[in-house]
Write a structure and sequence with these properties.
The protein is mainly alpha-helical. Helix content is 73%, strand content 0%. It has helices at residues 11-27, 32-58, 62-80, 86-105. The radius of gyration is 14 Å and the shape is globular. The mean pLDDT is 90.
């Protein structure tokens, strides 16, 4: 189901695209570049959902687990929604990617972003 092509994105790639999404949302949320950023963010979300959900299952704190699960559920809904305001779409996809990166990175060894 992944829309990704080529090598998997790095954490740096994802972070740069999140920043780019926020910048585009403020200035030019339409056009080929914005469309490509939205496509990449959706791809990142697809890649990050399973690790984020795995992290949620490992949490003992019920409230924290619920927050992560609701974030993942919202991200899944964003994958199904391709309409609406282009700037809002960029912001929501960027925020979802950022949060899923944080949760997924909790499972990675080494320094955290």
């Amino acid at each position: 189901m992944s829309a990704a092509t080529g090598p998997p994105a790095t954490w740096g790639d994802m972070g740069r695209d999140v920043d780019l999404a926020f910048a585009l949302a403020e200035g030019r949320p339409t056009g080929p570049l914005a469309d490509e950023v939205r496509r990449r963010l959706r791809s990142y979300i697809e890649q990050l959902l399973v690790p984020a959900e795995t992290y949620a299952k490992a949490l003992e704190d019920v409230r924290a687990r619920d927050i992560v699960e609701k974030t993942a559920e919202h991200a899944r809904a964003l994958l199904r929604d391709h309409g609406g305001d282009p700037a809002t779409s960029l912001r929501l996809l960027g925020k979802a990617t950022y949060h899923l990166m944080r949760y997924a990175s909790a499972l990675r060894p080494g320094p955290q972003r």
